[in-house]
Design a protein that fits this description.
The complex is a heterodimer. By secondary structure, chain A is an all-alpha fold. Chain A has one domain: ABC transporter involved in vitamin B12 uptake, BtuC (Orthogonal Bundle). Chain A is 73% helix and 3% strand. Chain A has eleven helices and two strands. The termini of chain A are far apart. By secondary structure, chain B is an alpha/beta fold. In chain B, the strands form three sheets. In chain B, strands 8-7-9-10-11-14-15 form a seven-stranded mixed β-sheet, sandwiched between helices. Chain B folds into two domains: 210 residues, 3-Layer(aba) Sandwich (Rossmann fold); 147 residues, Response regulator (Rossmann fold). Chain B is globular. Chain B contains 13 helices and 15 strands. The chains are: A mainly alpha, B alpha/beta.
């Protein structure tokens, strides 16, 4: 029976991991920008939820779109004014740039919010669902469902909207997209902004689960990186498959070998995928 | 001729005005180096230590500085950020001694970095006070210049175990979940020893890696082990998450102990009602009462001065840092000199009381005179259960 509980834990955790990674995957896959700001974007979204709840009693599920739009604006401005200037430079350049921007944002958050760990404590708590011996925490289930809905929304946007098709076109062939009249710089800025929106909204949702501080932005970034490599870059499905694979793997590893091996095994898997299947489980196909 | 003598007088005057005040300034200042993790993952701890040192320096200077050998010395603390990187902590300790020419040193944060940097202060013969290192392995290296304000880890688990087994003899099964990190793992190991010493059954002892974002599997195993006493160690973010996931997965126990999160107000704020009845232990608590001989005087006065400056209640790490400064001051004044060897001997012979408690170091340099308080969160506030002379309540059974 313990296996059923651990599998349930792993699936729910995988849903949270997908929420963490989807924006990162979009930006990396489409723009070829490894956005090292992603972890700080998640934390900033979580702070929007924390202060929204503490000051105005706004439920984090309601502040998620607000956090998303705040991050959208920040993301668009950053891409349009700074990142677009080096977007065609080798990947190391954008990596260094986002690293520097992350240092700025992270230290600004440390100054503004301090390093103390905080958490949204819901009153009353959502509680858990009991199915015989299986327990499912409702807040995790709710966050997972909302994150999957958001991800599905992103999938529809990419599949059915003019903007979405432009993003996919840029990813497939940037020169051809430009020749077809796609405004490359603006579309790239929108892509980065959508990635930031997803990070901000996910951060807001995750604030009821994880303690937040600017210090744990690196933990979220590390997870996003591993999930994208496992699942495959630039696809909505890749983030979900990568997230659930990692969630299940960490849970089962903790059960079989002990919790101390759950984190090392995820990074070992990252190395294995980079060596054997660098395109991830779903490869680069997904949006098309 | 006039021109040459004028030039000479001018140059001599310049030399006197520029060098002499510097010499006298240098002689009137005691510089204490403080390598701290002011950025990176350990920065909350580093900032807490800095607050303690800053307050001590401010209060000491406002009272005329350190009086020794017929002079009054102003205190200056030289901070260097080692960015939570232990090898860099060792480098900064050496830099503070060789380039910044500090007279004395505070250790970096925690047992690991303190042990790593202790060889440097020993090499140069610089008296060093460690404010946040408890593991005995830090002090058993035969070093003469290292002194620490935390008692060994078993001084936390032993009184806890005595209180729990006395209060509820039905507690038989203990589950331990420890962060795989020097201090949290050492505390977990001490708990295992304390439990076995009392014939308690350690039904689970699992470690989790630094950076773990999910404890569900470990807690599921814990639930299957059906413990009477859950003992979790780690830092504040780990323990907030563990406590939350215990509740998520419906894990309850008569006794839940967590070290070191509940000693901080952030734990109570971030855990809300889940913090209720969680027990813990730390090396100091604002409820202790000592009539100190140092610049802070009594514990009540220290709490008051702290709250005036920081608008918050001090925790054990902040208090220990302030006490480390006060201990240096008492030793330097007793030594009647700032000579490192004389100050080292004064530290070794020190037997006095501060707001932090009685200060007497054992032969290894680790303090032996403290009774670390055991406490439990009751009604949203920490209530001291031990030692008896500051006891505020009884251990409550049952954590939901």
């Amino acid at each position: 029976m313990i296996y059923l509980q651990v599998l349930a834990n792993g699936l729910v955790l995988g849903g949270l991991y997908a929420a963490i990674a989807v924006g990162f995957s979009l930006v990396w896959g489409v723009l070829n920008v490894i956005n090292l700001l992603h972890g700080s974007f998640i934390i900033l979204g979580a702070y929007v939820a924390f202060f929204g709840y503490a000051l105005f009693g706004l439920h984090p599920f309601l502040s998620a779109p607000i956090a998303g739009f705040i991050l959208f604006a920040i993301g668009y401005s950053l891409q349009a004014t700074v990142i677009n200037r080096v977007i065609h430079a080798p990947v190391l350049m954008t990596l260094t740039l986002t690293f520097g921007l992350d240092l700025l944002l992270n230290n600004a958050m440390l100054l503004a919010f301090k390093a103390d760990y905080r958490k949204v404590v819901l009153e009353p708590p959502l509680g858990s669902l009991f199915f015989g011996p299986i327990v499912l925490p409702l807040d995790r289930i709710a966050v997972m469902i909302l994150a999957l809905l958001m991800t599905y929304g992103l999938y529809l946007l990419l599949r059915d909207s003019k903007l979405g098709r432009a993003i996919i076109a840029i990813r497939m062939d940037q020169e051809a997209a430009a020749l077809m009249g796609v405004n490359i710089l603006q579309t790239q800025a929108m892509t980065f902004a959508i990635g930031a929106f997803m990070a901000g909204a996910a951060g807001s949702l995750l604030s009821i689960i994880y303690p937040i501080s600017p210090l744990n932005s690196i933990t979220f970034l590390g997870k996003a990186f591993v999930i994208c490599v496992i699942g495959g870059l630039g696809s909505v499905g890749g983030a979900i498959v990568g997230g659930i694979t990692l969630g299940l793997l960490e849970s089962l590893t903790a059960l079989w070998f002990g919790p101390e091996y759950a984190v090392p095994i995820s990074f070992a898997l990252l190395i294995a995928f980079l060596a054997v299947r660098p395109t991830g489980l779903l490869g680069r196909r997904g949006y098309e | 001729m006039y021109g040459r003598s004028f030039k000479f007088s001018f140059l001599a005057g310049l030399l006197i005005t520029s060098v002499v005040p510097q010499l006298s300034f240098a002689q009137d200042v005691i510089r204490i180096g403080a390598p701290l993790p002011l950025t990176g993952p350990l920065s909350p701890e580093g900032i807490k230590q800095k607050q303690g040192y800053d307050l001590w320096a401010e209060v000491a200077n406002s009272k005329g500085g350190i009086k020794t050998g017929g002079k009054n010395y102003k205190v200056e603390i030289v901070y260097v950020d080692y960015a939570s990187n232990t090898p860099r902590a060792v480098q900064t300790a050496e830099r503070l001694i060789t380039e910044d020419k500090v007279n004395f040193l505070f250790s970096p944060f925690g047992s690991g970095a303190t042990k790593a940097a202790s060889g440097i202060s020993e090499k140069y013969g610089i008296p060093t006070v460690a404010a946040t290192a408890s593991s005995e392995q830090v002090y058993d290296q035969g070093y003469k210049f290292l002194f620490g304000t935390f008692t060994p880890n078993d001084t936390l688990t032993e009184p806890l175990s005595t209180i729990v087994t006395k209060r509820d003899p039905n507690v038989k099964r203990v589950a331990i979940l420890a962060r795989n990190d020097l201090f949290p793992l050492a505390i977990g190991n001490e708990m295992e020893k304390s439990a076995k010493k009392r014939n308690l059954d350690v039904v689970m002892f699992e470690k989790y890696a630094i950076g773990t974002m999910d404890h569900a599997s470990a807690i599921t195993q814990m639930r299957a082990a059906n413990p009477d006493w859950i003992f979790a160690t780690g830092y504040i973010n780990d323990l907030i998450l563990i406590r939350k996931q215990m509740s998520d997965l419906g894990v309850t126990a008569p006794i839940v102990t967590m070290i070191a999160g509940p000693a901080y107000k952030e734990f109570m704020d971030a855990s809300g009602p889940l913090a209720e009845n969680v027990s813990s232990a730390a090396w100091w608590h604002p409820a202790v009462r000592y009539d100190g001989k140092g610049v802070f005087g009594s514990t009540e006065n220290f709490n008051k001065v702290w709250e005036q400056k920081y608008k918050d209640t001090p925790d054990y790490a902040q208090a220990s840092a302030a006490a480390a400064g006060e201990i240096f001051q008492l030793a330097i004044e007793k030594a009647e000199s700032i000579d490192p060897k004389k100050v080292r001997n004064a530290l070794a012979d020190l037997d006095t009381t501060t707001f932090y408690g009685r200060i007497k170091f054992g032969p290894t340099g680790q303090i032996t005179s403290l009774d670390p308080p055991v406490f439990q969160i009751q009604g949203g506030k920490p209530v001291v259960l031990f030692p008896d002379y500051i006891k505020q309540g009884e251990l409550k059974i049952g954590v939901k």
